[in-house]
Every structure is written in structure tokens, then in C-alpha cells.
Specification:
It is built from two helices and four strands, in the order E-H-E-H-E-E. The protein is an alpha/beta fold. Strand 3 and strand 4 form a beta hairpin.
């Protein structure tokens, strides 16, 4: 089974990433992916400065995950090594 992490991000403290996470979990289940980690950021930053992305890149480098699921606007993105 392919291992993946899920990443959700919102730009203000009053928002919740839960709907993004639920959609990613459902997609992972449909595709037969094993979700081994879920991360969220609640911060407005530039696309290259997301704090959690560094941890996810380390997990990919260490072979702990093979892909990353994230909901960005209306597109579900699957990033692979």
C-alpha cells in the first residue's frame, strides 16, 4: 500500500482545515493509500514558506511517505517523489 501524508492549510485563525482534511482522507481511501500523518498550518504565508512543508519533505526523504495529498482551492493535488 502506498503511504501518504495529508496537508491542510488555512490563512486565518478563525478558519478550520477540517473539510480539506476530510476530502483528502476520502480520496486516500478510494485510492487505497495508507495515511501515515496529517499536518495543518493556520497561517498566511507565501507558497514557499509553509512551516510544515519542511517536515513533510523530511518524511519523503527518509522514505516514510511516498506522496502528499493536499486540497488547494478546487484541486486535489497528489505530490509524488
Amino acid at each position: 500500500m502506498k503511504t501518504v501524508a495529508i496537508y491542510g492549510r488555512v490563512s486565518t485563525a478563525g478558519q478550520s482545515p477540517e473539510s480539506q482534511l476530510q476530502e483528502c482522507r476520502a480520496y486516500a481511501e478510494r485510492c487505497g493509500y495508507e495515511v501515515v500523518a496529517t499536518y495543518t498550518d493556520t497561517i498566511k504565508v507565501s507558497p514557499n514558506a509553509k512551516p510544515t512543508i519542511f517536515n513533510l519533505d523530511l518524511m519523503k526523504f527518509a522514505g516514510q511517505i511516498k506522496g502528499l495529498l493536499r486540497k488547494d482551492d478546487l484541486v486535489l493535488e497528489v505530490r509524488k517523489n
